[in-house]
Write a structure and sequence with these properties.
Distance between the termini: 51 Å
Largest sheet: 2 strands, antiparallel
Oligomer: single chain
Structural class: mainly alpha
Number of strands: 2
Shape: globular
CATH class: Mainly Alpha
CATH superfamily: Ribonucleotide Reductase, subunit A
CATH architecture: Orthogonal Bundle
Helix content: 55-70%
Strand content: under 5%
Number of domains: 1
Order of helices and strands: HHHHHHHHHHHHHHEE
Radius of gyration: 21 Å
Strand order of the largest sheet: 1-2
Length: 339
């Protein structure tokens, strides 16, 4: 049974084996056992959080005449380079994928639980990220508005159905890695923009702070899962950690956008390698003992991932040459980027 009281098996794909169904059911039981822990982690999260509103971060209402403030914001933002604009657009669209993640998490959480309370709180906090970035882009006009609307529509329409969709353990491995990666991307995009426009630097810094706290929650949840069910938890982690499918991967021209972000030094394979190393250390993967054969094999696989990611990064870097980019979001202006 899931936390809602329905049969988990009724929610799973029909082509799953009976063993897979049983495995998911047992994992849901572990998640239910974490109910009290989730309540504690959520209380700690709210105690540390400084809740902000998109209207606060934009700042046009508090800077005297709103019209004058908006004009000044537009003027300041015109200095943003096209690679910075592309990075902001990618960050914005990935945040707009929130409906996908709400759906994925919701299948595991029932009413009247701390899990459901956390999911709703997390969704409310995440929703502000897309709102404030959209507000900023609309006010500053740094992106071609209709192109941005189409990109968001096509991304949401294409859906997001990763291979870990129905496995709660894999879900929390993924959210740990993804929240850290988005924190990294927002923070570094802000730094890249800082010399051009301090307001977006400030906005992205506040968003990154949210992502850091969400990351802390999810990685602690998975640490608790490891304590209760180490063999199955390691198998799930080994399935997800080698290469995560970032939010937004289904949007048109995602690889081109991601290449601009990598070349800008904002986020790329070496950053993901660093994130994986962080989790291996925090979860103390190397120290886990008393594992069954499958758990031992998964442990060994996880410990080898950083070396594999190093080879991936070296391969990409060795093949990268100068390239010219052009996107409708920045009015098809061509700009060249070095490797």
């Amino acid at each position: 049974m899931d936390l809602l009281g329905h049969s988990v098996s009724s929610l799973l794909p029909h082509n799953m084996t009976p063993e897979s169904h049983q495995s998911i059911d047992s994992k849901i039981e572990v998640m239910a056992d974490l109910e009290t822990t989730v309540g504690i982690l959520m209380a700690e999260h709210e105690a540390k959080r400084d809740l902000w509103w998109p209207s606060d971060l934009i700042g046009t209402e508090e800077d005297g005449d709103p019209h004058v403030a908006e004009v000044l914001l537009q003027e300041n933002a015109q200095g943003l380079s096209d690679p910075c604009r592309v990075a902001i657009a990618l960050n914005l669209i990935t945040e707009e994928g929130l409906p996908h993640f709400h759906r994925i998490l919701a299948v595991h959480f029932g009413d009247d639980t701390f899990w459901r309370q956390w999911m709703n709180l997390w969704t409310a906090e995440e929703d502000r990220h897309g709102v404030v970035l959209h507000d900023y882009c609309r006010m500053t006009r740094i992106l071609q508005a209709q192109g941005l609307d189409r990109l968001q529509f096509e991304y949401l329409r294409s859906g997001f159905h990763p291979h870990w969709d129905y496995d709660p353990y894999r879900t929390f491995v993924y959210t740990t890695l993804q929240e850290r990666a988005t924190q990294w991307s927002h923070s570094n995009t802000g730094k890249a923009c800082a010399n051009y426009e301090p307001r977006i630097h400030y906005i992205l810094g506040r968003i990154a702070g949210d992502e850091a706290r969400h990351y802390a929650f999810y990685r602690q949840v998975f640490a608790e899962i490891l304590q209760r069910d180490p063999d199955a938890a390691l198998e799930s982690a080994a399935a997800v950690m080698p290469s995560i499918e970032m939010p937004g991967t289904s949007m048109p021209d995602f690889r081109e956008y991601a290449d601009v972000v990598r070349r800008s030094g904002i986020y790329g394979p070496r950053d993901y390698q660093h994130i994986v190393k962080e989790q291996i250390k925090f979860w103390e993967i190397e120290k886990l003992s008393g594992l069954k054969p499958k758990g031992c094999a998964a442990q060994e696989q996880i410990l080898s991932i950083p070396q594999r990611l190093e080879r991936v990064a070296e391969h990409i870097e060795s093949r990268t040459k100068s390239k010219t980019f052009s996107f409708d979001l920045v009015w098809h202006r061509a700009f060249e980027m070095d490797p």
